[in-house]
Amino acid sequence: MNGPLRINILTIFPEMFDSFFSVSILARAREQGLLDIRMTDIRSFSSSKHRNTDDYPFGGGAGMVMMAQPIIDAMNSVRNDYPSARRIYLGPRGKKLTTSLARELASEKEIILLCGHYEGVDQRALDCCVDEEISIGDYILTGGEPAAMVLVDCVARFVPGVLGSADSPEEESFSDGLLEYPQYTRPRDLNGLEVPEVLLNGDHAKIREWRRRESLKATLKFRPDLLETASLVQKDHKMLDEIRKEMNQTCSFEN
Ligand SMILES: C[S@@+](CC[C@H](N)C(=O)[O-])C[C@H]1O[C@@H](n2cnc3c(N)ncnc32)[C@H](O)[C@@H]1O
Fold this sequence. Notes:
Elements: E1 5-11, H1 24-31, E2 35-41, E3 54-55, E4 65-66, H2 68-81, E5 86-96, H3 99-106, E6 110-115, H4 123-129, E7 132-135, H5 145-156, E8 189-190, E9 193-194, H6 204-222, H7 234-254
Parallel strand pairs: 1-2, 1-6, 5-6, 5-7
Antiparallel strand pairs: 3-4, 8-9
């Protein structure tokens, strides 16, 4: 068995992670030794009298900037125990977190995540102790901690064993370039709202076909841009033509 995926998160608010990593799938994965997640408090590396971690920006402007010294010292200390780690800064200008990047990170042995705050991090810390920057989307958070949680959560799903044998991360939205089909559970009839008949008859070929069609339909409706890069076979294109016709008919009835 491979060792756990080792993740160390550099933050000035380690307590923010306590409950997030202590419940549900991530907690179980930690107990099973599949994930080893630790937090490092950047503040404890500050050489200033009051353990400061931020200061005013040179050149003026609003807000504070995280100082380079505590970050560099924290990173150097952690690096001793994580010699092969990919060192990642969570920041809005980084490359976007995607399914393929998450899959790639899950195959690493060690990852160090740096969370920024305030107006960001002194560039010299990023220049000397970060290998890459990753963003979770085109919007601004108050700090890198929620972004680190999102990254760890989505990477963990690709670590073998984390989801249990029955669930596959490859059957979710985006894994094959399409959105997922709709899901239903009991009861079959909810005050007249019924589950599609095809899901109840045990014909797995028909269920597969229905799910593929619904997946294509959802993608066409919500994220048509994904269809340009999804891997589609001839049968998918035929289904898409049929779905487009159905949609056009519905629209013309509505007009
Ligand atoms: C208020 S933000 C700083 C934003 C920065 N002044 C800017 O305009 O790019 C504080 C911290 O939150 C984190 N952060 C904010 N938005 C993020 C995003 N979309 N993805 C990842 N981390 C983000 C970064 O670590 C950043 O240092």
